[in-house]
Amino acid sequence: MHKKVILYSLIAVLIISVTVVIGYSKYIDNVDALEKDKPPKEIPNELKQMSFDAGLEPYVIRNVVYDGMTMEELAAKLDKSLNSTIKGKGMVYATKSIEYGIDPYLALAISLHETGCKWTCSYLVRECNNMGGVKGSPSCNGGSYRAFETIEDGISYFIENLAHNYIYKGLTDAETIQKKYTGTNSNTWAAKVNKYIEEIKKA
User: Fold this and answer.
1) Residue with more model confidence, 50 or 108
2) Do residues 87 and 152 lie in contact, with contact meaning Cβ atoms separated by under 8 Å?
3) Contacting residues for 101 by C-beta, under 8 A, at least 6 apart
4) Please, what's the largest Cα pairwise distance for the chain?
5) Are 64 and 51 in contact (CB under 8 A)?
6) In Å, how far from its chain's centre is CA 70?
7) Domain 71-202 belongs to what topology?
8) What is the Cα–Cα distance from 83 to 94, expressed in whole angstroms?
9) Cα separation, 145 vs 44, whole angstroms
10) 16 — pLDDT class (breaks 50, 70, 90)
11) Residue 185 to residues 133, 150, 167, 180, 189: CA-CA distances in angstroms?
12) Which of 56, 143, 160, 200 has the most CB within a 10 Å radius?
């Protein structure tokens, strides 16, 4: 009789143990499933937006700099609109625009409109890396326009000038920039720049 009690007790303990193990296993599976489907946490950031790629362990942090894109993604997007002398210079436009806190679409759109680099860049760009019709020295082939050593230097100067002389003075879009930039009240310049902006966004 005593042996039977011990046997039944052992069987009961075994059954309970198996049940606990199975239950715990299902619990872990459910937790794993929830964690996989768990959306990334949002992190407030005043200077940079941070986002998480869901479904990765550990979560991978993406530095979003503009329009939901990382610097590399933004550069790749801008590159789709660049040809001729500035082909492949999307990273220069991206980094310098973010550095100076201006809209990279606007900066690139003005460049394309003023230089023709949507197709073939102007003489000043091709010969002297001058992106904005900048005058000064060193001279571009003896003329009044300035020559820049590299196209990167020319783009950087153009964006810096746009920031300090327009954006930081409250002229932040094509409509407000056009009068100072062109010296006229015509909406034609702004309309063309805005058209380029839309094309860049869709690229």
Assistant:
1) 108
2) no
3) 163, 167
4) 116
5) yes
6) 4
7) Lysozyme (1.10.530)
8) 16
9) 46
10) low
11) 20, 34, 18, 9, 9
12) 200
